[in-house]
């Protein structure tokens, strides 16, 4: 393809530019999260959803594709067939989103990378550390774009928090606390629902359930905002509700670069909490606090000074880089769909730049990439080892 996607006079100090055409997006996996992400991708006005492998049953795949207004010829019953067919088309997909159960992430991602198609994949990236490492290698060898669905890092106030930390405005970090508390698994029969059953099946979900699903969001957010890699942890897994084959709760002590201590909690049995993701980063001169259920605001403290609350919107303490991810004025709320749209906006910029041969400056795009997905898999593996050793400290 020869059409240029990015403008010739691209200014990296300006808001993200419009593309010369909408990019073509494929979908693998037909669950609820795929519809959410597709809605967000369309919101950016940079993507159109044109193909999919939405079911392994051929008839059902076409039925589901019709619900998405897809051409019947582009409704596939396997991701392998989709990768091969779309790569051969002159109007084939530019990228694919992978929203299948965890055990299919690796083979699906590999199939599209091998076909020369850029990938954005849900977390956890894979169920095995070796598979995650292989995806890093494949991405590096191909030069393709690989995004990972750590959407919490795409809220504007998290980007603002990251900048405040990087600028040294809270001093040297001395502790990091993060928790993700939900309540949807509180009823004893919650695990009977079909969309929950695979999350508790080790053959599909991998060695964890709660940790691999929401614990990885918490771990990624702590590292993303602080700029520090998590290096060690000690973990205890628990089943706090009805008997289950995998944990529904986990408590951890953590260590980050520079021996910075922290804590991490994740559970699905905390009545009253729906999106209870909370981050606290404290330093020698101040601190930051953010709450997913109040995602419009970032609390910023400087010791000995009046407390501050930065609100999502234009100006008033929000940086220019953060404003790129803002769609409405302060007082008109944005939420998780807009955060997904921010992820798909930055992913679109990266895909367009690769196709145009444009070198992007370091830090221009902050969306999570394959190495961060692999770090999440290493975090899961370390937590499993620690739990099996009775909560011993282990290296990640």
Give a topology summary.
Elements: E1 23-28, H1 32-43, E2 47-53, H2 58-67, H3 79-88, E3 95-98, H4 105-114, E4 118-121, H5 129-142, E5 146-148, H6 156-166, E6 173-181, H7 194-197, H8 202-205, H9 210-226, E7 230-238, E8 249-256, E9 260-267, E10 276-283, E11 286-291, E12 297-302, E13 308-311, H10 320-323, H11 336-356, H12 370-388, E14 394-395
Parallel strand pairs: 1-2, 1-3, 3-4, 4-5, 6-9
Antiparallel strand pairs: 6-10, 7-8, 7-14, 8-9, 10-11, 11-12, 12-13
Helix pairs in contact: 1-11, 4-5, 5-12, 6-9, 9-12
Note down, in words, how this protein is organized:
The protein is of the alpha/beta class. The protein has 12 helices and 14 strands. It has helices at 32-43, 58-67, 79-88, 105-114, 129-142, 156-166, 194-197, 202-205, 210-226, 320-323, 336-356, 370-388; strands at 23-28, 47-53, 95-98, 118-121, 146-148, 173-181, 230-238, 249-256, 260-267, 276-283, 286-291, 297-302, 308-311, 394-395. The strands form 2 sheets. Strands 13-12-11-10-6-9-8-7-14 form a 9-stranded mixed beta sheet. A 5-stranded parallel beta sheet has the order 2-1-3-4-5, sandwiched between helices. Strand 3, helix 4 (105-114) and strand 4 form a beta-alpha-beta unit. It is globular and about 60 Å long.
């Amino acid at each position: 393809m020869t059409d240029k996607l990015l403008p010739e006079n691209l200014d990296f100090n300006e808001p993200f530019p419009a593309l010369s055409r909408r990019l073509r997006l494929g979908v693998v996996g037909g669950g609820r999260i795929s519809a959410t992400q597709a809605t967000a991708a369309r919101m950016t006005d940079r993507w159109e959803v044109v193909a999919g492998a939405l079911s392994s049953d051929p008839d059902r795949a076409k039925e589901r594709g019709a619900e998405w207004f897809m051409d019947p010829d582009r409704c596939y019953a396997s991701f392998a067939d989709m990768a091969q067919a779309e790569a051969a088309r002159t109007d084939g997909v530019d990228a694919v989103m992978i929203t299948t159960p965890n055990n299919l992430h690796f083979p699906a991602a590999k199939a599209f990378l091998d076909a020369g198609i850029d990938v954005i994949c849900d977390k956890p990236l894979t169920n095995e550390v070796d598979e995650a490492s292989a995806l890093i290698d494949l991405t590096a060898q191909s030069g393709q774009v690989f995004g990972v669905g750590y959407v919490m890092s795409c809220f504007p106030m998290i980007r603002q928090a990251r900048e405040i930390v990087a600028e040294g405005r809270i001093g040297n970090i001395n502790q990091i606390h993060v928790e993700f508390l939900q309540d949807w698994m509180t009823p004893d029969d919650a695990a009977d629902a079909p969309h929950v059953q695979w999350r508790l099946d080790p053959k599909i979900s991998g060695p964890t359930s709660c940790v691999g699903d929401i614990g990885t969001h918490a771990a990624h957010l702590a590292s993303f905002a602080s700029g520090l890699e998590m290096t060690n942890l000690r973990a205890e897994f628990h089943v706090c509700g009805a008997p289950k084959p995998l944990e529904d709760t986990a408590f951890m002590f953590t260590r980050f670069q520079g021996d910075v201590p922290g804590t991490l909690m994740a559970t699905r049995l905390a009545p009253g909490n729906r999106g209870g993701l909370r981050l606290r980063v404290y330093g020698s001169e101040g601190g930051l606090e953010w709450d997913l259920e109040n995602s419009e605001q970032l609390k910023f403290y400087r010791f000995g000074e009046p407390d501050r609350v930065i609100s999502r919107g234009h100006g008033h303490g929000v940086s220019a880089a953060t404003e790129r991810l803002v769609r409405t004025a302060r007082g008109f709320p944005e939420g998780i769909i807009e955060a997904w749209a921010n992820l798909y906006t930055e992913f679109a910029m990266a895909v367009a730049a690769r196709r145009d041969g444009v070198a992007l400056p370091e830090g221009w795009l902050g969306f999570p990439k394959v190495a961060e997905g692999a770090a999440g898999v290493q975090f899961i593996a370390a937590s499993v080892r620690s739990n099996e050793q009775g909560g011993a400290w282990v290296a990640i």
